[in-house]
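Lecture 7 notes. Example A: sequence first, then its structure tokens.
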Amino acid sequence: MELLAVLGCALLLPTVLGEDCPSPCSCWSLGEPWGTGVDCSSRGLRALPALPRLTRILHLHNNSLASIPAGALDGLGHLQELRLWDNPWHCDCHILYLKLWLQDFSAPALARLRCAGPAPLRMKALGHLTGNDLGVCTRLLPTKCLQFFWRDLILIAGAVITLLLVAWALKFSKKLVCQLRLGSRRLRRSIPKTHKVL
């Protein structure tokens, strides 16, 4: 009975991998708890295919990838090995996601990548790109970032106005206290003292 279960799982495993494996790539199992290896190297890919969620090893080297879409690698939480070299990376604003993602994932993987274009950046290491190299990338900023900027600006302005009002209230309250003290002294002086005679 156990032999039939093992044989059934062995026959179903390639089918399961075939469903998750991108068509131009080859995949292999690293064992159920360890995930999947995906080899998409040397396939002439111009775009990143949909990848299995449990990908642990990913080979994308020697293709025609110019950039990786923002968020495309975020779902690969189990990834441990990534090969991206020998791709014609176009180093403009669209490469910023890959650069930032690789800074968190693997500095050595980032160090191996070189820009293929534009011409002024040809052969420059992707890890050495600066904001000046990429130009103004504001169109890639999510709308939420701009909303947070305006929200923060309004909060700061509100805090400054509140501080000014508190300072004015303190100054006014000091004047009021002084006037009350003077008024109470005048009142005490103007009230005639009565003597008791026994």
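Example B, a different protein, same format:
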Amino acid sequence: MCFTRKTSCVRRRFREFVWLRQRLQSNAVLIQLPELPSKTPFFNMNNPHHVDHRRQGLQEFLEKILQNALLLSDSRLHLFLQTQLSPEDMEACVCGQTKYSVADAIHKFASLNRRFPIEDEERKKGKNDADSDSESSSSGLGPSDDSISCGCKASTASEES
């Protein structure tokens, strides 16, 4: 399995990073994985310092993991970074319990050209401003529906467990 795109943009919750680290550790017992940033009991999403500190810690975690060739061979890592599948759906996909393969899930997510709602609003606003004096045109690819998952469940950033 290899990365299919130069960049990937997905949203993940802290608990999903915990799940990823546990799965990677169970598959690579002899490798000392980097630690995740500590989970503070009074984490406040409205505190920019808390959010930035955690984001930096998660970024460092991923950067260290991506330097290890053995960990790069784990399909869960690829699904984690290149799809919005939930941990349960990633596990089912890796275990062959879905109608789609790992490569199919990654390719389908990439081909949907997913954006987050705020990006869609900004893109539409920018398009409306830019196109106010011109006609709009269609790509001919048909309507884009971000709810299409073709068997791949997309999770939202606001889900809590």
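Note on Example B: The chain has seven helices and no strands. The longest helix spans residues 48-65.
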